[in-house]
User: What shape does this take?
Amino acid sequence: MGANPGIMHVGSTYCRIMLSGSGVILMLFLINAIFRGAGDAATAMRVLWVANAINICLDPCLILGLGPFPRLGVTGAAVSTTTGRSLGILFQLYILWRGRGRVEIRREHLRINFKVMANILRISGSAVFQFAIATASWMLMVRLIQTFGSAATAGYTVAARIIYFSILPAWGLGSAAATLVGQNLGAGHPEQAERSVWRAAFFNMIFLGAVSLLFLLLAPQLIGIFSSDPVVIAVGANCLRIISICYVLFAYGMVIVQAFNGAGDTFTPTLINLFCYWIVQLPVAFLSSHRLGLGPNGIFTAILVAEILVGIIAIFVFRLGRWKMKVV
Assistant: This one.
């Protein structure tokens, strides 16, 4: 990815630990999706409270070496995250085996059902490809911005973390929309499913619109919380301001794309991601940042253009209504 030796020395161990815990994050997300699919989003939220509370408590202890804990630096962050997620899974399994919630797992359920497995693989195959497209595009964007130096990468990384944190409630609204779509289509109420999506998207637009205004006004101050380097602050602030311009359309795109998945139509979001992130975003990012000389701002502009397209295309395809026939 173009990292210098110092970053490689610090980041390699962190990367090894996080990648070795891939199965942990898979199970955490999977079981929480089961809870949400059963209409029990509160339990999924409590699980994440437990996992993140443990992570937050362990982070300063293992990073800084507080009390009896060793000082592990960046490696401590990886250990804390993996530990918190692992304990979160134990909490999930306890809830499932206790049998008092909407979903329970008993010994007689632990058997192979090839029909169900084939159905899961058929749906998830497109979904895996869908997210692989978006993730691979993001990795290439990081590699591209690394060509402008470590300070630019740090600014983008800080801004991206702030953006991810700010859209967590928006992801929650999107997950709720996906759940409601699946439940309503399964119950034979497609019009109610559609109304749920538009309502969730509208609430998401109001929330992200407010966040966008905050980023436009206070971007340097927000980046300054995490770094005192003027280059990092400048790059990060530009990133927040440019990307936040698309937040209104991004709000609709986020909810509608998840709604497609909730309807079992994972192919449509895959095509949207492939076109917007690979056909549009990557070439625009390279041309605007290097050929047009815009530097990191060209990369951020490419993200802006791609997310606007995601929103517009998602709204157009959703209005066609073909997703109503995709539910399994």
